[in-house]
Design goal:
The protein is mostly beta strands. The chain has 4 helices and 21 strands. It folds into 3 domains: 85 residues, Immunoglobulin-like (Sandwich), CATH 2.60.40; 71 residues, Immunoglobulin-like (Sandwich), CATH 2.60.40.10; 113 residues, Immunoglobulins (Immunoglobulin-like). Helices cover 14% and strands 46% of the residues. The C terminus is likely disordered.
Length: 322
């Protein structure tokens, strides 16, 4: 009986070996068939936008991590903003301002391909650029930002309180320091800039005087003198008009204009316009009938008839003044 049992065991073992050798060897596929693609995750560092309104304001480190519990990961691929697909090997850095879409997927050792995934974010690490434009009595600011856009402009005058706006009008003459900068939508802050400006909103002062020179034989000349002053920017020029027609411009002190007098001028009006360097102007007018009425032209003409008396008067007085 024992021999029979032993023989049965031997036969069973032999049959077991025979069955194993007859069945084709399929490796792990017999017991572990892999039809599941890998799973890839994308990690950003910083994990959340570190600026305002969903913007990153620093470099962004991108890490792709793929796992496959069966055959294992063969390769991971990615591309940036519809560019060429690249094989992922190590984390990479996004260091330029732009809108980004990172697409990625992995393939395992059995050839299973993961569906393409994506991660999107936006980066603006460059502050705005602000420029100041100085006009007659105001300053206007313009700012540009090529990525997120300008949020607001700040300025201060002579170290005073910070104000928000893109222009201001000067109400106090003199020299001022103006500081200004901008902040963009992402929260980037431009460094403060400074300019020194001198404002002159006050027109110059002006006064007209005149003198008469000449004699009955050679005729008469009138010298008009514009006495002008400007305490802030200084004088630029003076224009002389007869009956609203520009006749002469003088840009050097003393501001004078000499004309040959005739009786036809007595009905004319002289207008003198003074300009300072800042562009402010002031004017004064003179009715030339005053010269005909009030200067003693009649006396020299009368004395011309008496040469000896005329010469004596010229000797002591030299010239006639009004």
């Amino acid at each position: 009986m024992n021999n029979l049992i032993k023989k049965g065991l031997v036969v069973g073992v032999i049959l077991l070996f025979i069955s194993v050798s007859v069945i084709p060897s399929t490796g792990n596929r017999v017991f572990f068939d892999d039809i599941t693609p890998p799973v890839t995750t994308c990690t950003l560092n910083p994990p959340e936008p570190n600026g305002e309104n969903g913007w990153y304001v620093t470099n962004v480190n991108v890490t792709l991590n793929a796992t496959d519990d069966m055959s294992g990961v063969n390769a991971t691929y990615y591309r940036i903003n519809n560019g060429e697909w690249e094989t992922y090997e190590v984390p990479f850095v996004i260091n330029e301002s732009n809108y980004y879409v990172i697409e990625y997927y992995s393939v395992d050792n059995e050839g299973n391909v993961e569906d393409v995934k994506s991660a999107s974010f936006k980066v603006d690490s460059v502050p705005p650029v602000t420029t100041a434009h100085v006009s007659w009595n105001s300053i206007r600011f313009t700012a540009t930002d090529d990525m997120s856009g300008v949020n607001w402009i700040e300025f201060r005058i002579d170290g005073g309180s910070v104000q928000i706006g893109n222009s201001f009008i000067v109400v106090v003459d003199g020299t001022h320091q103006v500081d200004f900068h901008s902040i963009d939508v992402a929260g980037n802050v431009e460094p403060w800039k400074s300019i020194t400006v001198t404002f002159d909103c006050t027109p110059p002062t002006i006064e007209i005087t005149w003198e008469v020179f000449g004699n009955f034989i050679c005729g008469w000349q009138v010298i008009f003198t514009a006495t002008c002053s400007d305490a802030i920017s200084g004088m630029d020029r003076v224009e002389f008009y007869l009956n609203d027609g520009l006749c002469f411009t003088d840009d050097t002190e003393p501001f004078e204009w000499i004309i040959e007098w005739s009786s036809a001028l007595k009905s004319s009006t002289l207008k003198v316009v003074a300009y300072d360097i800042a562009g402010n102007s002031a004017n004064a007018t003179l009715n030339l009938s005053e010269i005909q009425s009030y200067n003693p032209m009649w006396l020299p003409r009368l004395l011309e008839r008496f040469p000896l008396l005329n010469n004596l008067i010229k000797l002591f007085m030299g010239r006639w003044r009004v």
